[in-house]
Amino acid sequence: MVGGEKMSKSNLTGIKPQDLTSHFGVDAYRWYFLRAIAFGQDGSFSWEDFSARYTSELANDYGNLASRVAAMVGKYFGGELPASAADGEAEQAIHEGLAKAVAEADRRIGEELDFQGGILAVFDFVKQVNGYITEQEPWKVAKDTSDEGKARLATILYTAAESLRAVAVLLNPVMPETSQKLWDSLGAADSLGALADQKIGEAGTWGRLPAGTTVTKGAVLFPRLEEKPTA
Q1: How far apart are CA 85 and CA 89, in angstroms?
Q2: Where in the numbering of this chain does the Methionyl/Leucyl tRNA synthetase domain appear (predicted)?
Q3: Alpha-carbon distance 189 to 183, whole Å?
Q4: Cα separation of 137 and 156, whole Å?
């Protein structure tokens, strides 16, 4: 369905996939149709819905998280990923959230062919990490120059970066180009190898990204959308 009407050549209600991929990108195109429409069922598409989800879930939630974490590692630690040294309840909640996301995504996709549910499980974790950053306020913690403050800041940023490492692996089958950009930004290949060689089942193993890894801001994962092209 497009705009509430069935796709039809005679009524000119169809949309060329090339129009969507050129505007949103191939990764976002693949993500949207797996995330917004249940596999094997009819669904309704609108340009406005795609644009809204792209901006909210991809650019703001996922892309902005990756950009903020890389920028803070660069600003506060010279681009070198610090070691986690002061884990607490907040970090434990992230560890548990990741384990839950991996198990849920594996069950939904691997056993039930529920791609929508699997993707939503991963993005629920992305939202959890965003909430963690907001609550921990690393930009304020950075003002505490004591050893305890430095250890706390290091823990927050390591936790966020390690979470992104897992997200890159989990979303690689759906968004390979985006995941590769993030993998490169995290400098993960130097210690963990190629992204294509990572196993989904091991994505939830905490602490795989070693301290000392060089983190760079890299390319924007989801560029700002241009105006909708006219026919």
Answers
A1: 13
A2: 2-69
A3: 7
A4: 9
At 92, the amino acid letter reads: Q
pTM of the model: 0.90
For residue 31, what are the CA distances in angstroms to 20, 37, 180? 12, 10, 15
Q: Specify if 39 maps to a domain.
A: no
CATH of residue 142: 1.10.730.10
- Any domain includes 110: yes
Helix (H) or strand (E) segment spanning residue 37:
none
**Residue 108 belongs to some domain of the structure:** yes
Which tens digits make up the pLDDT trace of 30-62? 999 999 887 666 677 889 999 999 999 999 999
* pLDDT per residue as tens digits for the range 172-194: 999 999 999 999 999 999 999 99
Q: Domain range for residue 177?
A: 65-202
